[in-house]
Design goal:
- Strands 1, 2, 3, 4, 11, 12, 13, 14, 15, 16, 17 and 18 form a twelve-stranded mixed sheet that branches. The chain has a three-stranded antiparallel sheet with strand order 5-6-9. The chain has a three-stranded antiparallel sheet with strand order 8-7-10.
- Helix 1 crosses helix 11, helix 6 (239-254) packs across helix 11 and helix 9 (355-367) crosses helix 11 (418-432).
- The chain folds into two domains: 5-90 and 237-432, Zn peptidases (Aminopeptidase, 3-Layer(aba) Sandwich); 92-220, Aminopeptidase i, Domain 2 (Roll).
- With 434 residues, the protein is an alpha/beta fold.
- A hairpin with a 2-residue loop joins strand 5 (92-103) and strand 6 (106-114).
- The chain is built from eleven helices and 18 strands.
Protein backbone atom coordinates (compact mmCIF):
# COMPACT_ATOMS: atom_id res chain seq x y z
CA UNK A 1 0.00 0.00 0.00
CA UNK A 2 1.53 3.28 -1.15
CA UNK A 3 1.07 6.21 1.22
CA UNK A 4 1.98 9.62 -0.13
CA UNK A 5 4.07 12.15 1.75
CA UNK A 6 1.04 14.45 1.79
CA UNK A 7 -1.12 11.79 3.48
CA UNK A 8 1.58 11.13 6.08
CA UNK A 9 1.93 14.85 6.75
CA UNK A 10 -1.84 15.27 7.17
CA UNK A 11 -1.96 12.31 9.57
CA UNK A 12 0.94 13.71 11.60
CA UNK A 13 -0.78 17.09 11.73
CA UNK A 14 -3.93 15.35 12.99
CA UNK A 15 -1.98 13.60 15.76
CA UNK A 16 -0.36 16.90 16.73
CA UNK A 17 -3.76 18.58 16.79
CA UNK A 18 -5.23 15.91 19.06
CA UNK A 19 -2.21 15.96 21.39
CA UNK A 20 -2.68 19.72 21.80
CA UNK A 21 -6.45 19.34 22.35
CA UNK A 22 -7.15 17.06 25.34
CA UNK A 23 -10.47 18.77 26.07
CA UNK A 24 -13.16 20.34 23.86
CA UNK A 25 -12.11 23.78 25.12
CA UNK A 26 -8.52 23.11 24.07
CA UNK A 27 -9.73 21.75 20.72
CA UNK A 28 -11.56 24.99 19.96
CA UNK A 29 -8.55 27.01 21.12
CA UNK A 30 -6.32 24.99 18.76
CA UNK A 31 -8.75 25.62 15.88
CA UNK A 32 -8.91 29.34 16.69
CA UNK A 33 -5.12 29.59 16.37
CA UNK A 34 -5.19 27.89 12.97
CA UNK A 35 -7.96 30.15 11.71
CA UNK A 36 -6.29 33.33 12.95
CA UNK A 37 -3.02 32.35 11.30
CA UNK A 38 -4.87 32.11 7.97
CA UNK A 39 -6.57 35.49 8.21
CA UNK A 40 -9.98 34.52 9.61
CA UNK A 41 -11.68 37.33 11.56
CA UNK A 42 -13.17 36.54 14.98
CA UNK A 43 -16.78 37.60 15.54
CA UNK A 44 -18.55 38.41 18.80
CA UNK A 45 -22.15 37.25 19.28
CA UNK A 46 -22.85 40.31 21.45
CA UNK A 47 -21.94 42.76 18.68
CA UNK A 48 -23.30 43.59 15.21
CA UNK A 49 -21.64 41.74 12.33
CA UNK A 50 -20.38 43.48 9.19
CA UNK A 51 -19.51 40.77 6.66
CA UNK A 52 -17.86 41.03 3.24
CA UNK A 53 -18.11 38.58 0.34
CA UNK A 54 -14.93 36.54 -0.07
CA UNK A 55 -13.82 37.11 3.53
CA UNK A 56 -13.51 34.48 6.28
CA UNK A 57 -14.80 34.57 9.85
CA UNK A 58 -15.34 32.45 12.97
CA UNK A 59 -17.38 32.65 16.15
CA UNK A 60 -17.10 30.66 19.41
CA UNK A 61 -19.90 29.80 21.80
CA UNK A 62 -19.33 28.58 25.38
CA UNK A 63 -15.65 27.95 24.69
CA UNK A 64 -16.16 24.47 23.19
CA UNK A 65 -18.22 25.05 20.02
CA UNK A 66 -16.99 26.97 17.00
CA UNK A 67 -18.37 27.90 13.58
CA UNK A 68 -15.99 29.07 10.85
CA UNK A 69 -17.09 30.24 7.41
CA UNK A 70 -16.00 31.92 4.21
CA UNK A 71 -18.57 34.00 2.34
CA UNK A 72 -18.75 32.89 -1.28
CA UNK A 73 -18.60 35.22 -4.24
CA UNK A 74 -22.10 34.26 -5.40
CA UNK A 75 -25.26 35.39 -3.55
CA UNK A 76 -26.54 32.87 -1.01
CA UNK A 77 -29.91 32.26 -2.75
CA UNK A 78 -28.05 31.23 -5.92
CA UNK A 79 -25.77 28.64 -4.35
CA UNK A 80 -26.90 27.91 -0.80
CA UNK A 81 -24.35 26.91 1.83
CA UNK A 82 -21.85 24.06 1.84
CA UNK A 83 -21.80 22.92 5.48
CA UNK A 84 -19.70 20.33 7.31
CA UNK A 85 -20.61 19.48 10.90
CA UNK A 86 -18.65 17.54 13.51
CA UNK A 87 -18.23 17.53 17.29
CA UNK A 88 -15.43 18.61 19.61
CA UNK A 89 -16.26 16.41 22.60
CA UNK A 90 -15.32 12.77 23.19
CA UNK A 91 -16.61 10.21 25.71
CA UNK A 92 -14.58 9.83 28.87
CA UNK A 93 -14.36 11.00 32.47
CA UNK A 94 -15.05 14.49 33.84
CA UNK A 95 -14.16 15.75 37.31
CA UNK A 96 -16.95 16.49 39.76
CA UNK A 97 -17.20 20.10 41.07
CA UNK A 98 -15.89 19.13 44.51
CA UNK A 99 -13.58 16.47 43.18
CA UNK A 100 -10.98 15.62 45.82
CA UNK A 101 -11.60 13.49 48.90
CA UNK A 102 -9.29 11.77 51.36
CA UNK A 103 -9.06 8.48 53.20
CA UNK A 104 -6.62 5.62 53.76
CA UNK A 105 -3.67 7.98 53.37
CA UNK A 106 -4.53 8.96 49.79
CA UNK A 107 -6.25 11.78 47.93
CA UNK A 108 -8.65 10.54 45.28
CA UNK A 109 -10.47 12.48 42.58
CA UNK A 110 -14.15 11.89 41.98
CA UNK A 111 -15.27 11.68 38.36
CA UNK A 112 -18.47 11.40 36.35
CA UNK A 113 -18.81 9.30 33.22
CA UNK A 114 -19.29 11.54 30.19
CA UNK A 115 -21.06 9.82 27.31
CA UNK A 116 -20.33 6.15 26.63
CA UNK A 117 -16.60 5.41 27.02
CA UNK A 118 -15.11 1.92 27.27
CA UNK A 119 -14.28 2.33 30.95
CA UNK A 120 -11.87 -0.59 31.17
CA UNK A 121 -9.50 1.19 28.78
CA UNK A 122 -8.94 3.96 31.33
CA UNK A 123 -7.25 1.59 33.77
CA UNK A 124 -3.45 1.47 34.13
CA UNK A 125 -2.95 4.50 31.88
CA UNK A 126 -0.88 7.63 32.53
CA UNK A 127 -3.78 10.03 33.03
CA UNK A 128 -3.94 13.76 33.49
CA UNK A 129 -6.53 16.53 33.36
CA UNK A 130 -7.23 19.45 31.03
CA UNK A 131 -9.99 22.00 30.86
CA UNK A 132 -10.86 25.47 32.03
CA UNK A 133 -10.86 27.31 35.34
CA UNK A 134 -12.93 30.37 36.22
CA UNK A 135 -11.00 32.84 38.36
CA UNK A 136 -12.17 35.77 40.47
CA UNK A 137 -10.63 39.07 39.32
CA UNK A 138 -10.94 42.73 40.22
CA UNK A 139 -13.26 43.22 37.24
CA UNK A 140 -15.45 40.12 37.64
CA UNK A 141 -14.16 36.79 36.49
CA UNK A 142 -11.77 35.36 33.93
CA UNK A 143 -11.67 31.95 32.24
CA UNK A 144 -8.27 30.31 31.80
CA UNK A 145 -7.38 27.08 30.01
CA UNK A 146 -5.22 24.60 31.91
CA UNK A 147 -3.53 21.39 30.80
CA UNK A 148 -1.17 19.21 32.84
CA UNK A 149 1.23 17.50 30.43
CA UNK A 150 2.69 15.02 32.92
CA UNK A 151 0.87 12.00 34.30
CA UNK A 152 -1.10 13.28 37.28
CA UNK A 153 -3.61 10.55 38.10
CA UNK A 154 -4.15 6.85 37.68
CA UNK A 155 -6.84 4.17 37.88
CA UNK A 156 -4.94 1.02 38.88
CA UNK A 157 -6.51 -2.33 38.12
CA UNK A 158 -7.32 -4.77 40.88
CA UNK A 159 -4.81 -7.62 40.83
CA UNK A 160 -6.02 -10.81 39.17
CA UNK A 161 -5.47 -12.63 42.47
CA UNK A 162 -8.47 -10.67 43.79
CA UNK A 163 -10.50 -10.76 40.59
CA UNK A 164 -10.04 -14.27 39.20
CA UNK A 165 -12.91 -14.01 36.70
CA UNK A 166 -11.71 -10.85 34.97
CA UNK A 167 -10.45 -12.62 31.84
CA UNK A 168 -13.64 -14.65 31.46
CA UNK A 169 -16.25 -12.07 32.42
CA UNK A 170 -14.49 -8.84 31.49
CA UNK A 171 -13.51 -5.92 33.66
CA UNK A 172 -16.55 -4.35 35.31
CA UNK A 173 -16.21 -1.09 37.22
CA UNK A 174 -18.78 0.43 39.53
CA UNK A 175 -19.13 4.01 38.29
CA UNK A 176 -19.50 5.49 41.76
CA UNK A 177 -17.09 3.51 43.92
CA UNK A 178 -14.42 2.13 41.59
CA UNK A 179 -13.71 5.02 39.21
CA UNK A 180 -12.17 7.65 41.53
CA UNK A 181 -8.61 8.37 40.39
CA UNK A 182 -5.56 8.20 42.65
CA UNK A 183 -3.95 11.64 42.84
CA UNK A 184 -1.61 12.01 45.81
CA UNK A 185 -0.65 10.95 49.28
CA UNK A 186 -2.53 12.84 51.98
CA UNK A 187 -0.66 15.68 53.62
CA UNK A 188 -1.02 15.96 57.39
CA UNK A 189 -3.41 18.67 58.44
CA UNK A 190 -4.51 19.61 54.92
CA UNK A 191 -7.95 18.74 53.62
CA UNK A 192 -7.99 16.78 50.37
CA UNK A 193 -9.99 19.42 48.50
CA UNK A 194 -7.60 22.17 49.60
CA UNK A 195 -4.63 20.02 48.58
CA UNK A 196 -6.05 19.59 45.09
CA UNK A 197 -7.10 23.23 44.65
CA UNK A 198 -3.69 24.40 45.82
CA UNK A 199 -2.12 22.30 43.06
CA UNK A 200 -4.43 23.95 40.50
CA UNK A 201 -3.75 27.43 41.85
CA UNK A 202 0.01 26.95 41.70
CA UNK A 203 -0.22 25.87 38.06
CA UNK A 204 -2.16 29.06 37.27
CA UNK A 205 0.04 31.23 39.50
CA UNK A 206 -2.93 32.52 41.50
CA UNK A 207 -4.19 32.28 45.07
CA UNK A 208 -6.43 29.33 45.82
CA UNK A 209 -9.19 31.74 46.89
CA UNK A 210 -9.32 33.08 43.32
CA UNK A 211 -10.70 29.80 41.97
CA UNK A 212 -14.46 30.04 41.50
CA UNK A 213 -15.15 26.91 39.44
CA UNK A 214 -13.61 24.50 36.96
CA UNK A 215 -14.42 21.96 34.24
CA UNK A 216 -11.79 19.26 33.74
CA UNK A 217 -11.58 16.41 31.26
CA UNK A 218 -9.47 13.31 32.04
CA UNK A 219 -7.07 12.43 29.22
CA UNK A 220 -4.32 9.96 28.36
CA UNK A 221 -0.88 11.59 28.28
CA UNK A 222 0.48 9.11 25.71
CA UNK A 223 1.05 10.89 22.43
CA UNK A 224 -0.49 9.83 19.15
CA UNK A 225 1.53 7.40 17.02
CA UNK A 226 1.78 5.65 13.69
CA UNK A 227 1.72 1.85 13.86
CA UNK A 228 1.74 -1.24 11.65
CA UNK A 229 4.38 -2.77 9.40
CA UNK A 230 4.06 0.04 6.86
CA UNK A 231 3.01 2.70 9.39
CA UNK A 232 -0.36 2.74 7.64
CA UNK A 233 -2.38 3.17 10.85
CA UNK A 234 -2.62 5.81 13.56
CA UNK A 235 -3.55 5.54 17.22
CA UNK A 236 -4.62 8.28 19.61
CA UNK A 237 -7.38 9.31 21.93
CA UNK A 238 -10.34 11.35 20.66
CA UNK A 239 -10.15 10.30 17.01
CA UNK A 240 -13.91 10.28 17.51
CA UNK A 241 -14.41 13.03 16.63
CA UNK A 242 -11.40 15.34 16.48
CA UNK A 243 -10.36 13.57 13.26
CA UNK A 244 -13.48 14.94 11.56
CA UNK A 245 -12.98 18.39 13.08
CA UNK A 246 -9.41 18.44 11.77
CA UNK A 247 -10.45 17.23 8.31
CA UNK A 248 -13.19 19.87 8.08
CA UNK A 249 -10.97 22.77 9.14
CA UNK A 250 -8.08 21.55 6.96
CA UNK A 251 -10.40 21.45 3.94
CA UNK A 252 -11.86 24.88 4.69
CA UNK A 253 -8.42 26.45 5.03
CA UNK A 254 -7.30 24.87 1.76
CA UNK A 255 -10.29 26.21 -0.19
CA UNK A 256 -9.77 29.51 -1.99
CA UNK A 257 -12.01 31.73 -4.12
CA UNK A 258 -15.08 29.54 -3.68
CA UNK A 259 -18.33 30.61 -5.28
CA UNK A 260 -20.64 29.22 -2.56
CA UNK A 261 -20.45 30.08 1.13
CA UNK A 262 -18.51 27.36 2.99
CA UNK A 263 -19.10 26.69 6.67
CA UNK A 264 -17.71 24.35 9.37
CA UNK A 265 -19.89 23.86 12.47
CA UNK A 266 -18.12 22.03 15.28
CA UNK A 267 -20.31 21.40 18.31
CA UNK A 268 -19.84 20.38 21.92
CA UNK A 269 -22.05 17.83 23.75
CA UNK A 270 -22.73 15.39 20.89
CA UNK A 271 -21.72 12.47 23.08
CA UNK A 272 -24.43 13.33 25.61
CA UNK A 273 -27.29 14.15 23.24
CA UNK A 274 -26.50 17.67 21.93
CA UNK A 275 -29.17 19.25 24.15
CA UNK A 276 -27.40 22.46 25.18
CA UNK A 277 -27.00 26.07 24.11
CA UNK A 278 -23.76 25.16 22.36
CA UNK A 279 -24.82 21.71 21.11
CA UNK A 280 -26.21 20.80 17.71
CA UNK A 281 -29.76 20.86 19.11
CA UNK A 282 -29.27 24.44 20.21
CA UNK A 283 -29.61 27.59 18.15
CA UNK A 284 -25.91 28.18 17.39
CA UNK A 285 -25.89 27.16 13.72
CA UNK A 286 -29.26 28.69 12.86
CA UNK A 287 -28.26 31.89 14.67
CA UNK A 288 -25.07 32.15 12.60
CA UNK A 289 -26.88 31.45 9.32
CA UNK A 290 -29.57 34.00 10.17
CA UNK A 291 -26.92 36.62 10.97
CA UNK A 292 -25.08 35.88 7.72
CA UNK A 293 -28.37 36.33 5.87
CA UNK A 294 -29.14 39.58 7.70
CA UNK A 295 -25.66 40.99 7.18
CA UNK A 296 -25.82 40.27 3.45
CA UNK A 297 -29.26 41.89 3.14
CA UNK A 298 -31.36 38.80 2.44
CA UNK A 299 -35.11 38.86 2.87
CA UNK A 300 -36.74 35.98 4.74
CA UNK A 301 -37.86 34.52 1.41
CA UNK A 302 -34.30 34.70 0.06
CA UNK A 303 -32.94 33.07 3.24
CA UNK A 304 -35.32 30.14 2.81
CA UNK A 305 -34.28 29.84 -0.84
CA UNK A 306 -30.64 29.68 0.30
CA UNK A 307 -31.39 26.91 2.80
CA UNK A 308 -33.21 24.92 0.12
CA UNK A 309 -30.05 25.11 -2.02
CA UNK A 310 -27.75 24.03 0.83
CA UNK A 311 -26.09 20.70 1.57
CA UNK A 312 -24.91 19.40 4.95
CA UNK A 313 -22.30 16.71 5.56
CA UNK A 314 -22.37 15.29 9.08
CA UNK A 315 -18.80 14.03 9.51
CA UNK A 316 -18.33 11.65 12.41
CA UNK A 317 -16.48 8.33 12.47
CA UNK A 318 -17.52 4.85 11.31
CA UNK A 319 -17.10 1.29 12.60
CA UNK A 320 -14.33 -0.50 10.71
CA UNK A 321 -14.65 -4.26 10.35
CA UNK A 322 -12.79 -6.13 13.10
CA UNK A 323 -11.82 -9.62 11.86
CA UNK A 324 -11.66 -11.00 15.42
CA UNK A 325 -15.35 -10.20 15.93
CA UNK A 326 -17.17 -10.98 12.66
CA UNK A 327 -20.53 -11.54 14.36
CA UNK A 328 -20.70 -7.87 15.38
CA UNK A 329 -21.20 -6.71 11.78
CA UNK A 330 -23.85 -6.73 9.10
CA UNK A 331 -22.57 -9.36 6.59
CA UNK A 332 -22.67 -7.15 3.49
CA UNK A 333 -21.31 -4.04 5.17
CA UNK A 334 -17.73 -4.79 6.19
CA UNK A 335 -16.04 -1.42 5.82
CA UNK A 336 -12.25 -1.52 5.81
CA UNK A 337 -9.60 0.82 7.15
CA UNK A 338 -7.71 2.77 4.45
CA UNK A 339 -10.44 2.08 1.88
CA UNK A 340 -12.17 5.45 1.92
CA UNK A 341 -14.95 7.43 3.62
CA UNK A 342 -18.01 5.53 4.81
CA UNK A 343 -21.59 6.55 3.94
CA UNK A 344 -23.71 5.62 6.97
CA UNK A 345 -27.37 4.68 6.50
CA UNK A 346 -30.11 3.77 8.98
CA UNK A 347 -33.77 3.30 8.07
CA UNK A 348 -34.85 4.67 11.47
CA UNK A 349 -33.04 7.97 10.84
CA UNK A 350 -30.30 7.49 13.38
CA UNK A 351 -28.24 8.73 10.45
CA UNK A 352 -29.56 11.43 8.10
CA UNK A 353 -28.52 9.76 4.82
CA UNK A 354 -31.06 9.07 2.09
CA UNK A 355 -30.66 7.89 -1.50
CA UNK A 356 -30.34 11.42 -2.88
CA UNK A 357 -27.79 12.67 -0.34
CA UNK A 358 -25.77 9.47 -0.62
CA UNK A 359 -25.60 9.97 -4.39
CA UNK A 360 -24.46 13.57 -3.91
CA UNK A 361 -21.65 12.42 -1.61
CA UNK A 362 -20.64 9.66 -4.05
CA UNK A 363 -20.42 12.30 -6.78
CA UNK A 364 -18.10 14.38 -4.57
CA UNK A 365 -15.92 11.30 -3.95
CA UNK A 366 -15.69 10.65 -7.69
CA UNK A 367 -14.78 14.28 -8.33
CA UNK A 368 -12.02 14.05 -5.71
CA UNK A 369 -10.87 10.61 -6.97
CA UNK A 370 -11.59 9.13 -3.54
CA UNK A 371 -12.97 5.61 -2.89
CA UNK A 372 -16.07 5.27 -0.72
CA UNK A 373 -17.84 2.56 1.30
CA UNK A 374 -21.37 1.90 2.56
CA UNK A 375 -22.28 0.99 6.14
CA UNK A 376 -25.39 -0.24 7.93
CA UNK A 377 -25.47 -1.47 11.53
CA UNK A 378 -26.61 -4.97 12.46
CA UNK A 379 -30.37 -4.90 12.82
CA UNK A 380 -30.28 -6.68 16.19
CA UNK A 381 -27.81 -4.18 17.70
CA UNK A 382 -28.61 -0.67 18.87
CA UNK A 383 -27.31 1.96 16.45
CA UNK A 384 -25.62 5.14 17.61
CA UNK A 385 -26.61 8.50 16.19
CA UNK A 386 -24.95 11.75 15.14
CA UNK A 387 -25.65 15.45 14.75
CA UNK A 388 -26.85 14.75 11.18
CA UNK A 389 -30.55 14.12 11.92
CA UNK A 390 -30.57 16.99 14.45
CA UNK A 391 -29.19 19.61 12.07
CA UNK A 392 -31.21 18.33 9.11
CA UNK A 393 -34.48 18.57 11.06
CA UNK A 394 -33.66 21.97 12.59
CA UNK A 395 -32.70 23.60 9.28
CA UNK A 396 -34.68 21.51 6.80
CA UNK A 397 -31.69 20.94 4.51
CA UNK A 398 -30.48 17.77 2.74
CA UNK A 399 -27.92 15.90 4.85
CA UNK A 400 -25.66 12.87 4.62
CA UNK A 401 -23.85 11.06 7.44
CA UNK A 402 -20.31 9.95 6.69
CA UNK A 403 -17.14 9.06 8.58
CA UNK A 404 -13.68 7.61 8.41
CA UNK A 405 -13.52 3.93 9.48
CA UNK A 406 -11.89 3.23 12.84
CA UNK A 407 -11.34 0.53 15.43
CA UNK A 408 -12.08 0.70 19.17
CA UNK A 409 -14.49 3.61 19.01
CA UNK A 410 -14.90 5.18 22.49
CA UNK A 411 -11.74 3.55 23.83
CA UNK A 412 -9.19 5.86 25.41
CA UNK A 413 -6.86 4.68 22.61
CA UNK A 414 -8.57 4.50 19.20
CA UNK A 415 -7.12 3.49 15.81
CA UNK A 416 -7.71 4.55 12.21
CA UNK A 417 -6.02 4.67 8.80
CA UNK A 418 -3.56 7.21 7.41
CA UNK A 419 -5.11 7.15 3.94
CA UNK A 420 -8.67 7.55 5.20
CA UNK A 421 -7.90 10.88 6.81
CA UNK A 422 -6.38 12.12 3.58
CA UNK A 423 -9.42 10.88 1.66
CA UNK A 424 -11.78 12.73 4.01
CA UNK A 425 -9.89 16.00 3.63
CA UNK A 426 -10.04 15.61 -0.16
CA UNK A 427 -13.77 14.96 -0.38
CA UNK A 428 -14.64 17.80 2.02
CA UNK A 429 -12.47 20.09 -0.09
CA UNK A 430 -14.49 18.97 -3.11
CA UNK A 431 -17.67 19.98 -1.26
CA UNK A 432 -16.37 23.46 -0.49
CA UNK A 433 -15.26 23.90 -4.10
CA UNK A 434 -18.61 22.75 -5.53
Amino acid sequence: MKISDEALAQAQDLLNFIDASPSPWHAVNSIEKRLLSQGFTPLDETKTWQLTAGESYFVVRAGASIIAFTLGKQPLPNTGLRIVGAHTDSPGLRLKPQAAFGGDGLVRIGVEVYGGPILATFTDRDLSIAGRVTLRTEHGHEIRLLKFDDALMRLPNLAIHMNREVNDQGLKLNKQTELPLLFAESEDGIEADKQFLTYIAQALNVEMSAILSFEFNVFDTQKGAFWGANQAFIANSQLDNLASCHAAITALLATKNQQATSLCALFDHEEVGSESASGASGSFLSDVINRIAASTGLTEEARLCALAQSFFISADMAHAYHPNHPNAYEPCHHVLVNHGPVIKTNANQRYSTNADTAARFITLCERANVPYQQYAHRTDLGCGSTIGPIVASNLGIPSVDVGSPMWAMHSIRESAGVLDHSYMVAVLSALFNS
